[in-house]
Q: What sequence folds into this?
């Protein structure tokens, strides 16, 4: 399956793991769409902002699943995910309450995400690729140990 990536995800932020790169692209696209929706307006589409936070949550869960499948130590990275979601939810609450503006929230989310990809996700994928994960797991043998291994 080919995954289309638009120009929103710079090559420097590609981690060379298609599932993760596609999710990164989707998050950046959603941030850009929200910037456009809020530009020159006081309107804040709260459902769309909630959807962005759900995308972050789903993306973090994907990384955690991949790390778990590869049996990698991921607790520090997962803690960063949890702390970030808590911070973003609190910041969105401030946007809703009118104590911070939507553009500041989006600029922060975008900056944080770029830094996270560059510094933490790249290291994660490098560790992942140097592990035995580079070979896909055979789901049948992972689930049923009595099933003969493939040659």
A:
């Amino acid at each position: 399956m080919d995954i289309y990536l638009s120009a929103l995800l710079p090559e420097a932020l590609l981690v060379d793991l298609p599932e993760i790169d596609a999710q990164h692209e989707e998050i950046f696209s959603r941030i850009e769409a929200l910037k456009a929706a809020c530009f020159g307006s006081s309107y804040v589409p709260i459902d769309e902002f909630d959807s962005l936070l759900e995308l972050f949550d789903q993306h973090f869960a994907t990384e955690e699943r991949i790390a778990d499948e590869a049996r990698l130590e991921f607790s520090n990275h997962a803690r960063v995910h949890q702390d970030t979601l808590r911070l973003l939810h609190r910041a969105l609450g401030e946007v809703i309450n009118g104590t911070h503006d939507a553009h500041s929230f989006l600029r922060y989310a975008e900056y944080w995400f770029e830094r996270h990809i560059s510094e933490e996700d790249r290291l994660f994928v490098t560790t992942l690729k140097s592990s035995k994960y580079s070979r896909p797991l055979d789901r049948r043998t992972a689930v049923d140990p009595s099933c003969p291994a493939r040659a």
Observations:
- The chain has one domain: 15-131.
- The chain has five helices and no strands.
